[in-house]
Amino acid sequence: MQIIQKYFPDLSQEQIAQFAALGDLYTDWNAKINLISRKDIE
């Protein structure tokens, strides 16, 4: 999140929460189907 906030400092709290939830979604879906490289998940 720090990287996103560094480049987009004017995000609302709602947008920040949505980006935070996105990481969990990627992890969950990547466990089901290979969306992204396992190296890139971190």
Features:
42 residues, mainly alpha, elongated
Secondary structure layout:
Layout: H1 2-7, H2 13-32
Structure characterization notes:
By secondary structure, the chain is mainly alpha-helical. It has one domain (2-41). It is built from 2 helices and no strands. It has helices at residues 2-7, 13-32. The longest helix is centred in the middle third of the chain and has 20 residues, at 13-32. The radius of gyration is 12 Å and the shape is elongated.
Short description:
The protein has 2 helices and no strands. With 42 residues, it is mostly helical.
Q: What sequence of helices (H) and strands (E) makes up the elements?
A: HH
- Oligomerization: single chain
Number of strands: 0
- Residue windows where pLDDT falls under 50 for at least 5 positions: none
Q: What level of helicity do the residues show?
A: 55-70%
What would the average pLDDT be, to the nearest integer? 83
What composes the largest sheet?
none
Would you tell me the structural class of the helices and strands? mainly alpha
CA radius of gyration: 12 Å
Strand residue content: under 5%
> For the terminal residues, how far apart are their CA atoms?
12 Å
Count of domain modules: 1
Report the principal-axis shape. elongated
Number of helices: 2
